[in-house]
Specification:
Chorismate synthase, AroC fold; 8 helices; four-stranded antiparallel beta sheet; single chain; alpha+beta; about 280 residues
């Protein structure tokens, strides 16, 4: 089983990740990791920090001649802005952020120690880990793709850019929805035997850990609440060439916590970021 840990603060010297559980002999292409890190920083409306940093992964352990050796892989991403000790204390916690809850939980004098760790900047380390995960999955012809479905309720590029510009001019922010599609997943991953072995539960746990994600759905998702059983469930078909298959994919590729051989389709909703130019009254 793969597992990882990350460390580092938004304005610290570096972000770090340790990925454990990879078999030996997997060739890790650092260019693929850096490509995903660059993709994380792209997109219209990104903040100043995204333009400042140019993330590159340094693999500091766990490889021999570019291949894994079954020991933990250590990844380092250096921050250009590592001004943590000179950053001012924050005494006005932001609604929608971990600021106040973190202050009260850990007894800090202000929000600076909280926001440095509870920051979207931490996702750079997770992206690097995920990029290696995609390299591993490619060995089994499993591919993951993603796309933005809407930003602030707008769906076309022209509309979303206008909505972003309008929100920015008002000192505001926007939420949105994105979709993941995982192709090539064989039938049988996950299990109904225990709650923590259900594939949809495992995927939800990972995706909901991304800062700002507030909702997740698989396949038809919340649409199930508006359908009858005869409308919602996927008819099972069979052919010699394909074997068992579903004629639709409302289940999003998972039934009873187990992959059923169809594409796994997941949608997540991200809230507007909590940093606003105008305080909430």
């Amino acid at each position: 089983m793969l597992r990882y840990l990350t460390a580092g603060e938004s304005h610290g010297e570096a972000l770090m990740a340790i990925l454990e559980g990879l078999p030996g002999g997997l060739r890790v292409d650092k260019e693929k990791i850096d490509r995903d890190l660059a993709r994380r920083q792209a997109g219209y409306g990104r903040g100043e920090r995204m333009r400042l940093e140019s993330d590159k992964a340094e693999i500091v352990c766990g490889l021999y001649k570019g291949k894994t050796i079954a020991s933990p892989v250590g990844i380092l991403i250096r921050n250009k802005d590592f001004s943590l000790d000179t950053q001012a204390q924050i005494l006005n916690p932001r609604p929608g952020h971990a600021d106040l809850a973190g202050i009260l939980k850990y007894g800090f004098e202000g929000a600076r120690p909280v926001l440095e760790r509870a920051s979207a900047r931490s996702t750079a380390a997770v992206v690097a880990v995920g990029a290696i995960g995609k390299i591993f999955l490619a060995e089994f012809a499993i591919e993951i793709s993603s796309r933005v479905l809407n930003i602030g309720g707008k769906t076309t590029e022209k509309e979303t850019r206008k909505a972003i510009d309008t929100a920015k001019s008002k000192g505001d922010s926007l939420g949105g929805v994105f979709e993941l599609v995982i192709k090539g997943v064989p039938c049988g991953l996950g299990s109904y035997v225990q709650f923590d072995r259900r594939l949809n539960a495992r995927l939800s746990y990972a995706l909901m850990s991304i800062p700002g994600i507030k909702a997740i759905e698989f396949g038809l998702g919340f649409g199930y609440g508006y359908k009858s059983g005869s409308q919602a469930h996927d008819v099972i078909g069979y052919s010699k060439g394909k074997g068992y298959y579903r004629k639709t994919n409302n289940a999003g590729g998972i039934e009873g916590g187990i992959s059923n051989g169809e594409d796994i389709v997941i949608r997540c909703c991200m809230k507007p970021i909590a940093t606003l130019a105008k305080p909430l009254a």
